[in-house]
Amino acid sequence: MTIDEKTLERIVALVSKELTVRGADTSTFSQCVAGEYEDVNEAVDAAYAAQKQLLRMTLADRKRITDSIIRHCAPHIEELAHMELEETGMGNYKDKLTKLNAAIYGTPSVEDLIPGMDANDFGAAMYEFAPFGVIGALTPSTNPPETVINNSIVMIAAGNSVVFSTHPNAYRSSRRAVQLVSEAIELAGGPKNLITSIANPTIEKTNIMMKHPKVIMLCATGGPGVVRTILSSGKKGIGAGAGNPPALVDETADVQQAGKDIVNGASYDNNIPCITEKAVVAVDSICDALIDSMTKNGAYLIKDKEIIEKLTAFCMPKEDSPNKKMIGKNPSYILKQIGVTIPDDTRVAIFEAAEDNMLVMNEQMMPILPIVRVKDAEAGITLCERIENNRRHTAICHSKNMDVVTEMASRVQTTIFVVNGPCYTSMGIGGVGHNALTIAGPTGEGLTSPRVFTRKRKIMLVDSFNIRNNKMKA
After folding, report:
1. Are 300 and 269 in contact (CB under 8 A)?
2. Which domains are seen in the chain, by residue range?
3. Torsion from C-alpha of 458, 459, 460, 466, nearest 10 degrees
4. Distances 211 to 53, 200, 205, 208, 234 between C-alpha atoms, Å
5. Which pTM value belongs to this model?
6. pLDDT tens-digit profile of 92-131?
7. Cβ distance 22 to 29 under 8 Å?
8. What number of helices (H) and strands (E) belong to the chain?
9. DSSP string, 395-438
10. Which residues fall within 8 angstroms of residue 53, CB to CB, at 6 or more apart?
């Protein structure tokens, strides 16, 4: 294969830049990295110009760009995981590797954009998925580089450009991801500034970006406040809000497997993903066996009622207000703050609770898991409805009774419903389907993919392309 001089110069420049970055402390960068702008208007204008160039390129070109993002980001998974953990202090290194791998290798590209066709005696119609233009994307502190990579792939595959406003508490790791994606686009011959980001993001800068007339669509991954903001913007908005997933276990379940699955799910990245099990609802007849299975798989059972009350008040001081300093911390670290020592290798701390316990009814994003006993599956489903509280995010059911599974799925109305497995199978990790870091429950799109970030357009061929009969004039 031959390489022209221009391509060779680009590769040499990027390699040189990479060596410089690896040898430097990224916290000392005083200049903007690739794709980053201090001025919001410049960031939007650059992305707007790049999207116009992308419009003239083919689907094969888009695929080449997204493939380049995968190849270029993959060698940096460990670096990004370390940066994210060091910067945010939330989660654990092993699961961040898993999330980054899923974001890089499990995100769909242009294969998601399958056109539709309809035809009858009056002609034929074709439906295609066309881009919106410039998307303004707000990313969270819980999955910062993963969200940048995942969103970049799906939004570019759909034909858009992106302006990222990253969470200030995850600025460095998000910034590094933006830099890597920008380099990958350039290596693939894609338009410069196809993704851009705001340097040193603030609320004021984010508001400028959201109101900019060239930003046609908004995508927010975060809490309910962020989602409300984009929905009131007057623009097309895709929002991923909070969740409080309950896990029901009935008397027909494989209790030993359910205990293992729940511990694996609730401890996933120390419970910071919105999809993770936040409370367990167990039918009384199997609850003791379930707790036994959970303790055998890395859970620590707290029995002292005074400690449970103290822990609840410490983790959730008031309604829907978790102790932010404890989000994503290890169970042993959290318990230590209230004077309780448990093994450092504890994956999740569990305790039995009343159904109105603050940690049952509110999303806490900590590996602290309350368990509520119920008399039967019907009572369990009713309680799960209350726990999920119409967030329409995620729920889990461990049962071999399909009537129970069907009834719960129908009543909780969640975007994601996992049966007989840990929560993360819904993300394509040990389960079927693609990975998504933006799970749009409030706005209804579900697990986002390229098709979500497109407009459906129709072309109508009147009295044309009908080969079933001959209507041509003699």
Report:
1. no
2. 7-15+32-241+446-458 (3.40.605.10), 246-427 (3.40.309.10)
3. -110
4. 23, 18, 10, 5, 9
5. 0.90
6. 999 999 999 999 999 999 999 999 999 888 889 999 999 9
7. no
8. 16, 18
9. EEEE-S-HHHHHHHHHHH--SEEEESS-GGGGGTSSSSS---S-
10. 191
